[in-house]
Amino acid sequence: MTLTVSIVIGNPKAASRTRKVAELLVAKLLEPGSYDVRVFDLADYADEVLVWPSDKLAAANAAVAASDLAVFASPTYKGTYTGLLKAFLDRYPAGGLSGVPAIPVHTGADFGHQMGPTFTLAPLLAELGAVVPGRGFYFSLTQMDDIESVVGSAAAEYAANLAALAKVAGSAAVPAGV
């Protein structure tokens, strides 16, 4: 089975370092050839993110909601995620990401806001129904020289958390009709 993975980048600058971190996280987390990935670099959608309705954004939201795994990555602005990412997520109804495993990622200049993805983005994703498999991942841009190791460690932690969830899921009692 091939997994469908979505990476949503909330950086207003296209092809950012935030995107690089998120793409590397997926590459380190999943076996090569086991997934198809689609990147939604919201900088490419900036002219429509506040347009209601928008077929382009509706298609992007639907694709992310249908994913087997989603990574939501943002640079840290004022201690939290960008307004661009918030506007994208605001397009979902309650439960709009129901059951989607979602990893919150922030990047920042230093470690001053390292709890940001756990305390700001993870609760929003959970409110939308996503399953957040652990604490948010914060990558300080001071770590760029060690990006492979830092991201690899985060991927290993998420892999362990997902494996633990899979073990419990195999024995979960599922109500009829679900």
Reconstruct the topology from this structure.
Layout: E1 3-9, H1 17-29, E2 35-41, H2 55-65, E3 69-75, H3 83-89, E4 102-108, H4 116-127, E5 137-140, H5 147-169
Helix pairs in contact: 1-5
If you had to describe this structure to a student in words, what would you say it looks like?
With 178 residues, the chain is an alpha/beta fold. The chain has a single domain (3-169), classed as Rossmann fold (3-Layer(aba) Sandwich), CATH 3.40.50.360. Helix content is 37%, strand content 18%. The protein is built from five helices and five strands, in the order βαβαβαβαβα. The chain has helices at 17-29, 55-65, 83-89, 116-127, 147-169; strands spanning 3-9, 35-41, 69-75, 102-108, 137-140. Strands 2-1-3-4-5 form a five-stranded parallel beta sheet, with helices on both faces. Helix 1 links the parallel strand 1 (3-9) and strand 2. The longest helix is centred in the C-terminal third of the chain and has 23 residues, at 147-169. The chain is globular and about 45 Å long. It starts with a strand and ends in a 9-residue tail after the last helix. The mean pLDDT is 91.
Kindly summarize this structure in a few lines.
By secondary structure, the chain is α/β, with parallel strands linked by helices. It is 37% helix and 18% strand.
List keywords for this structure.
178 residues; alpha/beta; five-stranded parallel beta sheet; 5 strands; globular
Classified in CATH, the superfamily is Flavodoxin domain
CATH architecture: 3-Layer(aba) Sandwich
Q: Tally the beta strands.
A: 5
- β-sheet strand percentage: 15-25%
Q: How is the biggest beta sheet arranged?
A: 5 strands, parallel
The total tally of domains equals 1
Which consecutive residue ranges, at least 5 long each, have pLDDT under 50? none
The CATH topology turns out to be: Rossmann fold
Strand order, main sheet: write it out. Answer: 2-1-3-4-5
Helix content: 25-40%
N- to C-terminal separation?
A: 21 Å
What do the pLDDT scores average to? Answer: 91
- Number of distinct helices: 5
Order of helices and strands: EHEHEHEHEH
Radius of gyration: 16 Å
Oligomer state of the chains in this structure: single chain
